[in-house]
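Our preliminary data section would be incomplete without showing what the modeling component actually yields. Below, a chain of 69 amino acids is followed by its predicted structure, encoded as tokens that our downstream tools consume directly.
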Amino acid sequence: MPFCSETCLTLIMFAAGILLVAWAALRERRWMKAMDAPLLPTTPIMFAGAVLALLALVHLLTLAGAAAP
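Predicted structure:
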């Protein structure tokens, strides 16, 4: 079984989660005109990115050999 199969996929998912959080944070801080609602809500996207990054981090730790006490 190649080393990079699970590890690379997990690293890609971790990076995708971090990028989702960063993109949503940048969209939230963008200047908007008065009474101009955003078409895409950023809070659920930020939450989904954080959950994805957390799950990927736990999976990376499991692949590295960490175990629950």
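The mean pLDDT is 87. Residues 15-27+40-64 form one domain. Preliminary results of this kind motivate Aim 1 of the renewal.
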